Amino acid sequence: MPTLFHPLRLGSLELPNRIFMAPLTRARAGREGVPNELMARYYAQRAGAGLIISEATGISREGLGWPGAPGLWNEAQVDGWKLVTDAVHAQGGRIAAQLWHMGRLVHPDLGGGQPLSSSATTAPDHAHTYEGNKPYVEARAATAADIKRIVDDYVRAARNAVRAGFDGVQIHGANGYLVDQFLRDSANFRDDRYGGSIDNRIRFVRQLLEAVGNEIGIDRVGIRFSPNILVQGVEDSDPIPLYAELAKMLEELKVPWIELREPYKPTSSGSIPSAPVSPAMRPHYTGKIVINSDHDWTDARHRIANGHADAVSIGRLFIANPDLVRRIAANAPLNPGDSKTFYSGGAEGYTDYPFLTEQVAA
Ligand SMILES: Cc1cc2nc3c(=O)[nH]c(=O)nc-3n(C[C@H](O)[C@H](O)[C@H](O)COP(=O)(O)O)c2cc1C
Question: What atom of ligand 1 comes closest to residue 339's alpha carbon?
Answer without folding.
Answer: 1
